[in-house]
Amino acid sequence: ARPYLADGYYNTLAEVRKYHLEHVAGSISTPLLITDPEGEQFWPGQSKRLAALAGGPTTVVPFTAAEGANFHCQPMARRLTDQRMFDWLDEQLDL
Q1: Cβ count within 10 A of residue 36
Q2: Distance CA 37, CA 23 (A)
Q3: Are 74 and 80 in contact, with CB atoms under 8 Å apart?
Q4: Could you tell me which of 13, 41, 58, 94 has the fewest CB atoms within 10 Å of its CB?
């Protein structure tokens, strides 16, 4: 598989850098769940920034080191992440 049809890692990263949500985030009108892990290595601060730009209701869910849920995608706390995501879906779908 070749993400973005790019040859090699450098070209893939160069393609990824072209994508931005600033101009389209305001058109997101559906409820949006945004995770916000402590110690985010790749996009620190982006969770709150996206929440501020989104056009619809947002829920920013923090994850902390004390919970073992820090870092990008909460790699050591997938069960906690899944639970919070499914709880949010239950609320949104009124289940």
Answers
A1: 17
A2: 24
A3: yes
A4: 94
How many domains are there within the chain?
1
| Segment 24-73, tens digit of pLDDT | 999 999 999 999 999 999 999 999 999 999 999 999 999 999 999 999 99
For tokens 């995501």, the residue is 85
Helix (H, G, I), strand (E, B) or coil at 77: coil
Q: Is residue 89 included in any domain, yes or no?
A: yes
DSSP 8-state assignment for residue 2: -
pTM: 0.82
In a domain, 39, yes or no: yes
* Residue showing tokens 């290595």: 41
